[in-house]
Amino acid sequence: MAAPLLRSAFATLATLLLARPGLGQTGAGAESRSSCMMDLDPGPCRAYLPRVFYNRYTQRCEPFHYGGCFGNGNNFESLAECNAKCAWIPVAPKACRLDMEVGVCRALLRRYFFNMTSGSCEEFGYGGCQGNLNNFKDAASCYQHCVHRAVLPRICLMKADPGECTAVIPRFHYNPKTSNCESFTYGGCGGNDNNFSSERSCMSVCGQAVIPASTSAQYLSPSRRVFVARRRQGKTFKHKIIRQ
């Protein structure tokens, strides 16, 4: 009698372990990208574990309570982990964050929507009525509205913040005024997420960027659009400003 019960207990434990968010998936980069876009899922169990998920609609990492089993990969143990994994997500207009919606009518109109996970505009068949604002008549309109305004992650727009403590820790932050990763001294606590341990890690998140049209006026003359192109020379990063 004990043996079957023991086998059942082990089977249940194995099921729960395999159901942990992200377990058994391959390709860390691709997994991170898709995980951040998943809907909130606390799972069917009844634990009350404090976790953090990325809310694609508010574009912020927010707290929730995880039930302890199943769920999905949009499940992080801390705010710092969530911000680190989802830092690639660009600042995007609200319409571009919405899911594709065909509407309730039965026409088959060629339209385009912005896919936040792939970062591209994709074709779909629109029914002709209702739906939502993530609906563009051609690919050019979609890219103009969503991509040129949605390529600089939010953390890269934050001002350098040394925090509240008094340590002297060399760090790097992205300066959108100069389109460069620059050194600053971090105090060791507080501050914000525009805080990288190396120039390389700063560039990997913010360096290959276009300043969004909706925020560029804060930093540049409104009469010009500035695109930032990165080129790597040896172990240093240089930038070329291209004005249109």
TrEMBL record:
Main location: secreted
CDD domains recorded: Kunitz-type (cd00109)
Compartment(s): Secreted
Record key words, sorted: Disulfide bond, Protease inhibitor, Secreted, Serine protease inhibitor, Signal
UniProt domain BPTI/Kunitz inhibitor: residue ranges: 36-86, 96-146, 156-206
Record-linked InterPro entries: Kunitz_BPTI, Kunitz_BPTI_sf, Prtase_inh_Kunz-CS, TFPI/VKTCI-like
Species annotation: Petromyzon marinus
Annotated SMART domains: KU
GO molecular function list: serine-type endopeptidase inhibitor activity
One of the record's GO cellular component terms: extracellular space
Gene3D superfamilies for the chain: Pancreatic trypsin inhibitor Kunitz domain (4.10.410.10)
Signal peptide positions (record): 1-24
Gene name for this UniProt entry: LOC116948591
Name the UniProt record assigns to this protein: Carboxypeptidase inhibitor SmCI-like
